[in-house]
Amino acid sequence: xxxxxxxxxxxxxxxxxxxxxxxxxxxxxxxxxxxxxxxxxxxxxxxxxxxxxxxxxxxxxxxxxxxxxxxxxxxxxxxxxxxxxxxxxxxxxxxxxxxxxxxxxxxxxxxxxxxxxxxxxxxxxxxxxxxxxxxxxxxxxxxxxxxxxxxxxxxxxxxxxxxxxxxxxxxxxxxxxxxxxxxxxxxxxxxxxxxxxxxxxxxxxxxxxxxxxxxxxxxxxxxxxxxxxxxxxxxxxxxxxxxxxxxxxxxxxxxxxxxxxxxxxxxxxxxxxxxxxxxxxxxxxxxxxxxxxxxxxxxxxxxxxxxxxxxxxxxxxxxxxxxxxxxxxxxxxxxxxx
Amino acid sequence: xxxxxxxxxxxxxxxxxxxxxxxxxxxxxxxxxxxxxxxxxxxxxxxxxxxxxxxxxxxxxxxxxxxxxxxxxxxxxxxxxxxxxxxxxxxxxxxxxxxxxxxxxxxxxxxxxxxxxxxxxxxxxxxxxxxxxxxxxxxxxxxxxxxxxxxxxxxxxxxxxxxxxxxxxxxxxxxxxxxxxxxxxxxxxxxxxxxxxxxxxxxxxxxxxxxxxxxxxxxxxxxxxxxxxxxxxxxxxxxxxxxxxxxxxxxxxxxxxxxxxxxxxxxxxxxxxxxxxxxxxxxxxxxxxxxxxxxxxxxxxxxxxxxxxxxxxxxxxxxxxxxxxxxxxxxxxxxxxx
Lengths: 338, 338
Known about the structure:
- Two copies of one chain form a homodimer.
- By secondary structure, chain A is of the alpha/beta class.
- Chain A has helices at 5-12, 16-23, 32-44, 51-58, 74-89, 103-116, 133-141, 166-179, 195-210, 227-237, 250-262, 296-311, and strands at 63-68, 93-98, 120-123, 147-150, 160-164, 185-190, 220-223, 244-247, 272-277, 290-293, 320-323, 326-328.
- The first copy, chain A, has a six-stranded parallel beta sheet, sandwiched between helices. A six-stranded mixed beta sheet of chain A has the order 7-6-8-9-10-12, with helices on both faces.
- The longest helix of chain A has 16 residues, at 74-89.
- Chain A binds chain B through residues 51-52, 55-56, 63, 70-72, 74, 77-78, 80-81, 84-85, 88, 93-98, 100, 108-109, 112, 116-117, 227, 254, 257-258, 261, 280, 282-287, and chain B through 51-52, 55-56, 63, 70-72, 74, 77-78, 80-81, 84-85, 88, 93-98, 100, 108-109, 112, 116-117, 227, 254, 257-258, 261, 280, 282-287.
């Protein structure tokens, strides 16, 4: 049995990508000492490169890869559709893989896509990747093809990225409630206090502080972006004496509306709501929600533009594109300015 | 420049897959005459097989491919999630591609996935493929890896397939309306009169005929499964003097509900509705729809089971699995039995 890249990687305690880069003399962030070790192991074991793998790496495939956390989530399925459509127009086929929001899968799928031959990689990494920032950044740094991070990124890691301004979105939502006369305002936000997931709480806080409004402890309700957590939030909101709530995603708003209906709480007469995503108004017949809208098609377009420029060598600096969400005003907020 | 499989295919006027099969002496449905021609062209042009492609075809990759028409459609994104999940459990990675519901893409993407190395192929082909039955069946017949058709298939083409009984679903929906006392019943169905898309109209017709009820011309309303066509159907239903309607998918029901609300028509007091898909009850707050439910997760599981049996050589005959939908009773139908 022949000795493979994987065997070398294991023995040298580095990634397969690292071994590939070193043996092909490509630029990478690996110490000279480690490089020497890798070459030595390869030599000692009579390693011969797999012609397959090498050929697939060097030739143009007119294909991009996309790693997303959850294809069933409407945000990601719309994003996928948009990227697929723009890349298709530019003559590229998109291969999609689903990480199941698992960090280990992010790493595995990067290698899988590389081994199948892609010209570029789009990735929205899993939420758990935030706990493995160093490892993932090292992996990405070693890539010899262009890659673009979408929607999620690490603050201190320079690379190509396209995302929405989540702080701004939450700020606009909360500010609108304040301008309509509300002073006691709850928020339902994600319970993970890190990176982009925390930005929406930051925006709420910024608006409240700007207007000198108090944020009591029980105004802050933690959820997980699923319907059930919005439903549960309803019980707290009905007891915390607030007149309005900013909900950080549409799924939680759906759950909240169910709970409120059960208790006969009317929107907006008894409680005002601003939601986030603006994906529900096709579905809810009785009410039109005021919400923060993110132009997902545009996110996909911008990411595709960046990638196509990269593979055509039309871009030298890292692209850092922050898209602005906007407030869409409907009838879920009551004006209580006297 | 070397002569490729593609060049031979072009000159012999056959598919690349056909050339590959013939030159590798694999079984295929190609005439001996054509086989001879292909070998002759290869010889004359000193064709040497690409080691890459051959290696990728013969070795196990632990990867399956999936071709779907529209990743943004909730039916397909749920199906994808289910297949991905079951294959993952069995140790296979799923590579997903989106055909944009275009027949030409079905053909192109089959070749693309083959060239990247997959052990098996899942496919839900585009609606336009029904107009190219012969060509697509020929293409599928030539495949040397297992494939499973999901949800859509050709009646006369023997292969592995997993799908729902659409005639039964529509029959159950219509029968329920009749049993609640309705005699004048509209249907909103897909306008394409072919194959699986027509089965839901067949089921409606079967129930109406079984109970000796008349189907007037204006009871049959054609739509395209999108919201707008359901909205437009509302105008016809308000004029055709029916007391109930069977709507063949949830998106059209959403549109219909919007139109009815605008005109003050109440459900179920003024009009009874049975829908299809049962995906809306998380979204609609004021009403719970009686609907036909298809267990999408189970569709994905069955398709995955078939594929895994195929690649493990545990199955010799073609699998032909027809899944039964079921009626979920809620409060969108009024009982008018006296």
